[in-house]
Specification:
Layout lengths: L22 E9 L5 H6 L13 E8 L11 E4 L2 E2 L5 H4 L10 E2 L12 E4 L2 H4 L1 E2 L9 H5 L4 H11 L7 E5 L3 H12 L4 E5 L3 H10 L3 E3 L3 H11 L5 E6 L4 H9 L1 E9 L11 H6 L3 E4 L4 H13 L9 E5 L4 H9 L5 E5 L1
Bound molecules: zinc ion.
């Protein structure tokens, strides 16, 4: 990405092993993320450009001499952040705060939207998949890279509990996966705030019991009507706008929690006083999806959840720029890239 609305497919130097803890992965599936749309709309022009992509599955082509947990030929899924798996934070399951980890792409590292990636700290980062690269569940397994784990994180941080009311702000892929997560954790009423017919249909399929298509104060009022005037126990904020955060805190009942996973686009959190007087918890951040892969994978492999349905368009590497455009124009929910 060279700037706003400027995505190019280019030949770059081949990915290769640099450190003994690296693995070289040939990418077989990747995707475009809703969070890629923030720089797509706002990035200042850059002469160097940024490698893009942080969600991918691929085949291990070679490993450094210190790699133990994956081997050549393994099909692996990568989380959207790489991590050592051993530091204080990794041990507590917060790999996105790894003391030695980092993020894909940029100017130094490979991105997932490319044919091959040098994976640092492969033992802590990669998880081997027990299926072949063309297995029918590939779309759902790919969501473990980010959106399914991120929706799960929002639900956990929002303290979703059996029999309680959850609300999801944002009908993108993460919000839709948040519906799956809320249902999986036992929420009885799941209110989806969204407006697009295709996304609403998918939300209902995933377990949403109520749809609120109003905006702003009208949305807050409608959620309160649906919850006996009290609001939701758990609110999953899956956008990151000031407006969506304002809605999220506005529909949280006293004593409830907001789990935010949308990258904040503003420097402050709205409604300091109402959240204070309501004893509302505001939690969340970048999901440690690496910590959730082993928990969520059996549900995918055994068909209990089907998050791969969020992919409504498949493209090849040459059409990635148009994939960005399609997601940005809300023509597509989420675009998968096949190599
Ligand atoms: Zn770590």
């Amino acid at each position: 990405m060279y700037g706003a609305h400027d995505v190019r497919v280019e030949t770059v130097p081949d990915a290769r092993i640099v450190e003994p803890t690296d693995a070289l992965v040939r990418v077989t599936r990747a995707c475009i993320c809703g969070s890629d749309l923030w720089p797509y709309n706002s990035m200042a022009p850059s002469a160097a450009g940024n490698r893009m992509g942080h969600e991918f599955i691929g085949v291990v082509e070679s490993i450094g001499r210190d790699v133990r947990t994956v081997k050549k030929g393994d099909l692996v899924v990568a989380p959207f952040a790489w991590s050592d798996g051993t530091c204080e934070f990794c041990q507590q399951g917060l790999q996105t705060s790894c003391l030695h980890g980092g993020w894909w792409g940029g100017t130094e590292l490979d991105g997932g939207q490319g044919e091959a990636v040098r994976v640092p700290l492969a033992d802590g980062t990669l998880v081997a998949l027990p299926v072949g690269p063309d297995h029918a569940l590939m779309p759902s397994l790919l969501t473990l890279s980010d959106v399914m784990g991120t929706g799960h994180h929002a639900a956990l941080r929002a303290n979703v509990r059996p029999g309680k009311v959850a609300a999801v702000v944002g009908d993108g892929a993460v919000g839709l996966c948040g519906v799956i997560a809320a249902r999986r954790l036992g929420a009885e009423q799941i209110i989806m705030l969204g407006r697009h017919a295709d996304r609403i249909a998918l939300a209902r399929r995933f377990g949403a019991t109520d749809i609120v298509s109003e905006r702003g104060d009208a949305a807050i009022e409608r959620v309160r009507e649906l919850t006996g005037g009290l609001g939701a126990h758990s609110v999953l904020e899956c956008v990151g706008h000031g407006e969506s955060m304002r809605t999220a805190v506005g529909i949280t009942r006293a004593g409830g929690a907001v789990g935010r996973v949308g990258v904040p686009q503003e420097t402050t959190i709205p409604n300091a006083q109402p959240t204070f007087y309501g004893n509302i918890t505001i939690a969340g951040g970048p999901a440690p999806v690496r910590a959730y892969m082993h928990e969520l994978m059996p549900d995918v492999l055994e068909g209990r959840i089907e998050p791969g349905l969020v992919f409504d368009r498949v493209t090849n590497i040459d059409s990635v720029p148009d994939g960005y455009r399609a997601m940005n124009d809300r023509e597509a929910i989420k675009v998968m890239i096949e190599f």
